Amino acid sequence: MKLSILKTKLSNEVSAVPTELAQPYLPYLDGLRGVAIIIVILSHCLKENPYFDVLGEVGVEIFFVLSGFLITTLLFKEKIKNGHISLKLFYIRRALRIMPVAYLFLLVLLILNVCFALGVTPVGFLASALYIKNIPIPNSADWYSGHFWSLSIEEQFYLFFPFLLVLNLNRYTLLISLLVIVLPIIGLLAVNKVGIFYTNTAIHALVFLLNSVFFGSGTVSILVGSLCAILVFKEVVVIDRLWNNYFLSFALFLLAVTIGYKESVLFIPHISRLFFSTLIAWIILLNLKQEKNLFSTILGWSAFKQIGILSYSLYIWQQLFTHNQPWKNAFPYADSLALNLLVLYGVATASYYLYEQRFLVLKNKFKQAPPKRSLVNAA
User: Fold this and answer.
1) Is residue 6 in some structural domain?
2) How many domains would you assign to the chain?
3) Is residue 241 part of a domain?
4) What is the pLDDT of residue 378?
5) What is the pLDDT of residue 368?
6) Is residue 361 predicted with pLDDT exceeding 50?
7) Residue 1 lies in a domain
8) pTM of the model
9) What element of type H or E holds 304?
10) Which long-range contacts (CB under 8 A, 24 or more apart) does 37-43 make?
11) Which of 96, 236, 242, 283 is spaced 20 to 30 Å from 118 by Cα?
């Protein structure tokens, strides 16, 4: 694409929903969520093995890319439908989706903490409840609420970046493009003790802070997903024109996992996360195409889609069942992994259908209605 055409497309207003994103439900993305949560659970079940312990980050990063892509897509759909985006309603909807089950988990964890002396500190509970678990606060780290680090990153993204997107879309696009391209290069220079990025104390501290916030935490993966959605809505990337074959997206997924896995020979600090998230974004687009391929067939399996639907519930509750269970010595077979995983699925299912659904119904009431047409416009 010529630079002038690219510049024109990037400056254009978002005016239409791409055909592949027009449908309200994208089943293959639920399948991808299913794959991601299985990776996380497998990693936690085999946590004692250092090679599997770091695998969970791959699953979480997939969630981050999906989150950035889908949230940006929903905001654009709202703008196209209603003419503007209501941040107030957006924040209410996000709170109703994320917080009820998260706080229910913390309440259950508080009870278990008293009963089994799990060692979760008041600071740990507070950091989780305030969604700042990703910040290294003294005495806040523990296994049982440790997964709130990723929820904290997502909440912080929801708090700041949609505001910037609504304020000025083109500046938002430029900002996140610079963040995902420039920061990993600077971070790599700092890690390898190159020039001023290492020798100057102030600059080195700033680089460390920026990379901790954006690359050490996974925020870059959310931003890549968001940027991917922007490029699709601005028609810089046209999904239907992407080259594809039956094996491509599956091969790209295997490559992404290999690059994103910290024990891989292909893993490069600060750089691999960007490559990984870019490949996942590419895979998302390929599996939105109308034509089926090997990976879309796998993602379309009902088991993966159902697990994907429950993925958030499973992620919230899995920390109690996959490793170092609070009740592991309380009764016979209490530490049986098969039994705990079975109970985990039951708890997540009950949580989603009996508890979370109530808030999802309420959440739908805060969808913005399109403005009423005046009599003149109606005529």
Assistant:
1) no
2) 1
3) yes
4) 35
5) 65
6) yes
7) no
8) 0.92
9) helix 302-309
10) 37/63, 37/307, 37/308, 37/310, 37/311, 37/314, 37/315, 37/318, 38/307, 40/315, 40/318, 41/314, 41/318, 41/322, 41/341, 41/344
11) 96
